[in-house]
Design goal:
Layout lengths: L4 H6 L20 H6 L10 H19 L9
Amino acid sequence: MKKTIADARDNYDDIIDLPHPVSRTHPRMSEEDRAAQFAPFAALTGHDDAVKKTAEEYEEETALRHLPNGRRGS
C-alpha cells in the first residue's frame, strides 16, 4: 500500500497546526547568523594552496622526465 501526503499528515494531526514555539531564555538568531552556519569554510587554512603547489611541482617533474636525457628546457 502506497502512503500519500495525506497519510503522512495524519501522523502529525495533533501538532501540525500548533504555533511555532518561542523560547523565553534564548533570543531568535538573526537570518545573517543562521546563514553563516551553512557557509562553506576551510577547515585547514592554506590547504588548497598547498595542494595546488604540490600539483604544480609534480607536473613540472613529470614534464622534465619526458625531456631527452632528463635535461631541463630553457
